[in-house]
Batch of 4 targets.
Target 1
Amino acid sequence: MREAAEVPDLHGTRYRLLEEVARGGMGIVYAAEDEQLGRRVALKVLDALGGEAELADRLMREARVLARLEHPGIVPVHEVGTLADGRVFYAMKFVEGQRLDQYLQSVGSVPDRLRLFLRICDAVAFAHTRGVLHRDLKPANVMVGPFGEVLVMDWGLAKILATVGDSDSATRDTPANLGKGSGAPVVTGHGRVMGTPGYMSPEQARGEVEGLDARSDIFSLGALLQFAAGQKFRQKERALEAICDKACAPEREGRYASVPELAADVSRYVDGLAVGAYRENILERVGRFYRRYRFFILLIATYLLVRVMLVLFYRHPG
Amino acid sequence: MNKILLGLLLGAVLGAVDGATAWFTPAVRAQLAGIIVGSTIKGVIAGVAAGIFARKVNSVPLGIVFGLAVGFVLAFLVAYLQHGYYLEIILPGSIVGIIVGYATQRHGMTTATAR
């Protein structure tokens, strides 16, 4: 039984506690003020006092994972350490904004929602090039800032496919090769089934931790895409539905091989181009062409109509 | 395709087609070749102007207004020099201007320029 969480003792640190922000599986996130730099930060503190060495190890590992992921779409870590009360903590950027599920309620345009999704893909693809799988991608773990910036949060279940410090080999890994090399995998979650039902890949749900690769996150991204696009819209748009289906294929061999490949297909869909996941018939192709160039086609049609009218009604004798 | 090249090609094609429709006016059929050449040049000028405008101003509505203005002015000048056919020249010429104004804004690529 874990001890009840207490207010962390920040004595001896540069932080002053402000308020509790969120609670997760292994830690509590507090808003705090960095008194040296005079800025707001978020402190993730282990929610148990001492004892739980495994949780402390996981929190440390999460901080190290974040530290190797310097990307605008991933929240940066400032410091990691142990509080006077013995609890492990790390300080990170304080993200003001809304969770993706809350934010999307104010975004009506599906292309805008998909562009947001593409920014999530950017961050995840970057993590994959650094040999890191997120393993818990879901709307609650994506924050959208006041200026529309997208941040992928909560890397507590991340799996590191390259050994820490082996950044060169991790960088050389292509996403498709993730899980096939780069030394012995270091695993957060210790082989248990961890993740969120509905967003977790079937192989992750079966607890096949050793065999997980980028395609597991691609499944989660597919579920996120379904969420972002909305069910009604997907049913109308077969191409988008096919992208979701391919990303969420039950067997990972049927999925996109990498996040950039998924993002490229979504991007093509947003631009009104043919997508790789769906073979359209001639009528659908014409319809897509018309939708893409609708205004231009209408202008040309107007021009031709005017010309025909002038020929018919303004004939001049020869 | 960059905005100026798109404007040039689209203006040339639409101008040539616009000029070729003079064939339906028997009174000017004898001067058809000259009309096509003149109309093509008019289209090219409108297209290049719209392309240059699109490089400087990134706005579809303003691009359309600019294209309309250039198309109208050029068509008016041609009609004025011909002393007639105002409606037959100005109305389609203005629409051609709108088309190149829209196309250069919406479909032309912006090329990076070193400063």
Target 2
Amino acid sequence: MSLSAEFIKGIYKENPVFRLALGLCPTLAVSTSISNAIGMGAATTFVLVSSNTIVSVLIFILAKVLSEEGQKSVNKIRIPMFIVVIASFVTIVEMVMSAYFPALSESLGIFIPLIVVNCIILGRAEGFASKNSILPSIMDGIGMGIGFTLALIAIAFLRELLGSGAILGANIFGADYKPVLLMILPPGAFLVIGIYLGALNWLDSRKKHS
Amino acid sequence: MEYGIFQLIILSIFINNFVLSRFLGLCPYMGVSKQLDSAIGMGMAVTFVMTIASMVTWLLYNFFLAPTFQSVFYLVFNVPVQNIPDLTFLRTIVFILVIASLVQFIEMYIQKASPTLYKALGIYLPLITTNCAILGVAVLNIDMFFKAGLPLHNSFINTLVQAFASGIGFTLVLVLMAGIREKLELANVPKPFRGLPIAFIVAGLMSIAFLGFAGMNVE
């Protein structure tokens, strides 16, 4: 597959949220407003790209340096190895965010350290970066990260629009609009993602028929 | 803020339910809620690991990472408190490693000690390592109780209570969801919505129902 194809596939065809149903917890929790969604998306993309890069370099070096025997034993501890790499990058994100974006860090709260257990990141490290060379791994990371961010923004768009009548804080419907508070509250997230998934399935089935 | 034990139980089971209002542990909630038996097994395994993991991570944070009078650096090596390195930034790395190895350890122990329990929980244990509910409750305990500067024994007991009650809350919604989904198999759902989409919408309706608990006065 070419580099651009690695990049493109994460955005729609293998979108981590809508197609693979990975990383649901942060998706639903932080999609109350578009600014939160962008912040979370950027943090996850950074961790995803960095961990993909390091993992593919690490596997490449280990394959050069170690004997057959050594590689077999390293293979057994590969998951803990990946988790440590990911956790280090998450710690960097945590510290940078609380230093430079305290408001964002406050509103994302517990979900910043929880980027560690976001299954997209471990999934890409194990499923893609450990089997591919550096450049495709970076492209895959960027593509998946952007796909995740776009999915978050799509959910946040509907929730913020209906739940507070605004987009990025700018009022859309005018002062008379009575916000559907439910959309900002937890049930809104479940309903919106359910409707999106159903709509995507419907589009797919229509494409198949025509 | 100080919490009573009963208040904490009600809060973590109903009002701040882990799945429906905190959005933690959604993967098993969607993945393992197709059958009632597996839902009960998963719920029990999560509750068990949550309680033990919370206990261990709290002890580690208190005695190793935070620069307080309980730090081992002060107690054992007599380092003055202001000179103890602040290791709290290592929280994420330490917690995830501890949880991953703890789950392995628990699995091995149960296999030896109680084959019947292993039969009930065994296949769910490996799935739990990357479950955000476990790391979530560990981090939440530190944020809610430790950083609030509660007296030490209060902080520890609150941690245990919150972890156990959150696990029970998780089990409760998982079992409810499994009951609904078993019936849903027979329902006539529009084709594009079959499977995951309708499960999310059902979860949304359950979440609306749980919003009702927010009106309870637990002060």
Target 3
Amino acid sequence: MAGADYHPLSRRGIGTKGLGKAWNERAFVIEEQALKTVEEIKAAIEASVPGAGVELVLNPSVSGQHSLRLAPSHAVAVATFLRDDRDLALDFLSNATGVDWPDKEISEKIKVTRTVSKTVDGVDQQVEETVEETRKRVEPGCLEAVYHLFSVAKKHGPVIIRLKTVNRSDQVELPSLTPVWRSAEFQEREIFDLFGIVFTGHPDLRRLLMWDEFKDHPMRRDYVEPDDYEYEPTAHDEVLARAQAHRAKAEAGQKGGDR
Amino acid sequence: MSGSGVVLNKNPGWNRPPLIEPEGEGELLEVAMGPHHPSTHGVFRMDVALDGERVIRLKPVFGYLHRNHEKIAEGSSYLASMPFTDRLDYMCPMTNNWAYAIAVEKLTGQQVPERAEYLRVIVGELTRVVNHASAIGFLTQEMGASGTPLMYAFKEREKILDLFEALTGARMMVNYMRFGGCRVDATPAWLDATRKVVSGLPKFVDEFENLLRGNEILMARCQGVGVLRPELAVNAGVSGPMLRASGVNYDIRKVDGYGIYNRFKFRVPLGDHGDIYDRFMIRLLEIRESLGILEQALHDIPAGPVMDPKAKLRGFRPKPGEAYGRIEAPKGELGFYLISDGGPNPYRYRIRPPSLINLTVLEDMCLGSNVADVILIFGSVDIVLGEVDR
């Protein structure tokens, strides 16, 4: 940013109430400075927040935007550090969003060595044999909240932090970062609405886009649309039959029924 | 104001302590402003609690235009979402295209040819002129200047939309950009027509500014109203002209220098008071800077392809990974966050909507002001519901 800031509006005619005079002197010192690498940021966090449990998540794409996964127990402390640290000064939470990672069934081929008894040349022997086996395991899924941080003061970014829930069903709490960055207020409400992550410590956690009576989380990957959002049982045969079928489904607690 | 008031604390959702204590003993009046209020720029509702004329609480209610764009985009290919981005902020389809293209280009590392970069800057800045002029027009409309300034703005907007139509085939739903370039090249005749329109715009801006800047009603109603402090603006993720009106020097065109913005000379106007008047004036001044950029771009635009002929559009599968790309859209920071799992569809497709996030501070700006000022403060944020609700 070359030269002085351009302030064309510093004078006023009528009606000026002297507001903002304090801001004629720049509240935000502007310095161009290269952002530290993720490894350096990780080291800085670990030095100032003991036991933070920061994990590096590498991004294989050409964008090179690597991220840091924080332990939920220390997330607020780390976030406060990132915001208030003089070198990082990540004062601007730009984007907060959720990602759904459903349970994954992975089949992998594993080489297994076992001892097999075999008859070789008419003699019983114990022979070691390597066999390829296909094994299936289920990798448990999780919900993830991703935050993109920038610095308005230092003009750098993004630094990406991620938080992960324990699972996708009953342990979906994460600490809210709204007390640190107000910008997360609506975005965390949206994540709660569409993904179902419950942010503890959020001042006003309600649905943002769907209506309050709605019962599922539409952005989850296993979400099934209901068969009919607005059914109207009337005396007409066709509609009545549809409504009855709909209600029977809903009573059976089937997915795709009444929500 | 009289009538049967509603006791706020019994209403679920109003779960934050009151920031302003009502005066006296009277009951509070709860008003639902919108979703059909003409000043809400679409279908937007504010649940306002009033103590007489004073606003005690204000809760925005969203979702009337929600169609889960992100889910739809996750079920379709990368390219198929491009025309859909036009419908986000339908006043500025070009910048929506651009933000999405930049995010995908970050994900794949595609290069954009010179001429395409210039065309992107030209259509992007024309969009900014359209958006800022209309935003000011709507603001004055809400102040009671019924139609005249808005029609001045729309007269110029029409000329620019004609240019868009000549270039892309559509006035608003342009579907112009592609990953690694632009869909069609501009003809020399189109560039001449654009030069002609751009050379006529400074006269319009002068006229518009003379009409409004010193207007006593506008000054009386806008100065000192809806003040946004810079610390709160930064903390609440406010971006675009609203952030700069609060005096924070942050323009992504300068900070990231995406595209070829490093080559152009332009200034970033900053407000000193953070009120409605500053937001209005910042938009006017940004139109002037945009015209400067347009002149430079139209002068320097080189010949060449607008798209790598070998670029693959169909069957497009980026390598696994993620990318966040953002641009300075006319309303603020518009970002796209994409996660690829190597498939033909994005695994995660997220839009960072400036309109929604700029509304975070709406309550803070409105508390304590008159109910008539709420309309103006809301108008000065400049939102489009297609982007807020997605």
Target 4
Amino acid sequence: MKNLPATLLRGGSILGFVLFISLPLVMVLLEAFGADWFGMRMLPAKWTLRWFMWAAQTVDLKGVLTNTIEIAVLATVFALVLSIPAAWAIARYQLPLKSLLIGAILFPRMIPEITFALGVARIFYAIHLTNTAIGIAFAHVILAAPFAVLVLVSTFEGMDSRLLEAGTVMGCGPFRLFWLVTLPLALPGLVAAALFSFLASYNDFVLTLMVYGADTVTLPVQTYLSLGNGYLSVAGAISTILLIPSLLFLLGMLRMVSPENLVGGLKGA
Amino acid sequence: MTEPRLRLEQVGKDWGRVAALADICLEVPRGMFLSLLGPSGCGKTTLLRVITGTVSPDRGRVLVDGDDVTQQPTYRRNMGMVFQSFALFPHLTVADNVAFPLRVRALSRAERQERVADALRMVHLNAFAERYPRELSGGQQQRVGLARAIVYRPTILLLDEPLSNLDTSLREEMRLEISQVARQLGITAVYVTHDQREALALSDGIAVMNHGRVVQFGTPEEIYRHPVDGFVASFVGYANAMPIVVAEGRAHMEADGAVLNVNVTDLHGPATAFIHASAVILAPFDAGGENRFTCTVVDLGFMGDHVEYLLQHSAGLQIKAHAQLGAAIYNRGTNVSVILPSDKLIVVPRATI
């Protein structure tokens, strides 16, 4: 080691950052799998799966999970249907006030979610969309679409128009050009946009809380409800279940597309 | 009389108020290798895109084998194109890239495989069929581009500066490859370039373009030996341009009034005499002969097979000369005689502005 203090500082700051991010997560996991954890103990005294069994007994876990996934899938579809044409227009055409347009699309992510949620709730009560999967999915589009549009704009912008020209010269009409050239080139971006949209909906709590009902309890809401009932460890168990798809997606995503591609789109090769 | 493979009739295209193409008329017979030669922005690439149909002309007609295809969409025209940027599909292997146009034409799998193998063999890439474009060098990628453009036997092969993105060392090799493939297939080709050496070496015919017009159309030899104006002359490599004035059948150097012995029949008024650097002869200071000027060696560079000189004439004119290896070498500051052989000089009228 040439410069030990610098190496220690660098290693220490990375470790600190990882701990800072993951400590709350570790606490939840300890809560979910531990028993007799009181006072000043660093770790639980015993390990158990009791809280998961309790969760299964006190809560309709299967129903809640089905609700969550159903809403997330709907929200993903809506978000893609909405953001693909928008992103294509922004990326491929000269539009007036382009930056303003992108700003407007990102706006929902910049203001407090609760503010938006209040407005959404007001509308949903008026037109009876509360406690419906479609309604909640629509609400989630507000959260999912900005991510999807961002990813897709950079995907479409990075698409080499000469490849489309090459396809046309080689005999592709508009429809075949889309299937054989445009779609395969855009696929990594589309997958990333879909995953982001899915997770935005799957993880959402604030918006859902304002418009959910007895038939549309989602995992984040259920976690909150269990906590409200005083079962800290049951809440921990449910949020651990909540965590699984996110982690799976993250792993899959990192394998499929490199982080640079997620941010920078698919440039060239 | 057989129809030419490609005929352009008074094709015009405007970008805003600027005429990108003005009144282009060209006939390309079957099997001809035609080059569109010109500086960037001269309209040569726009003309290529008018032929493929990705740019539709504002005026005029495009005829292929006598049929008017001006209104036909690009994908029905059966053109083949090689791109400067290669434009290979990154998600497909070499074989799948070459098979792409065959898949679009719904050929059977067996025939596809056979034709792809043939095309890849033609460009010496059969060993690379299963690689992806990103795993190939630039030269190899462009050979895939060439194979992909000819595999479906297009009516016309269009090449848009295919060598510009390659290393200098690869260009000659690739140029020969293109020439061989085109000749072997007897295909009609239109080749866009700004490099006069490529155009001269490859083509049966050259159309020199400037400001959206075809300035001269002819064989490489015609273009090289008899450029119609100063633009063509300097573009095909005449390094020395000397302003002269023609009066009563005699040419005088504008710089100092010295007589230049050169054929100037039919000419009158301001003109420019051009000569290639390699045609300029250097002789010892006191040598005699026609069109002899005394110059000082300003700079010289040893280029391996020849020596490049930059010479300064007392009247302010600079002359470039290439002397073959083996000739005497003159150092900086020496006075030498520069001889401009009258049969190597060409004179074109100079527009007075």
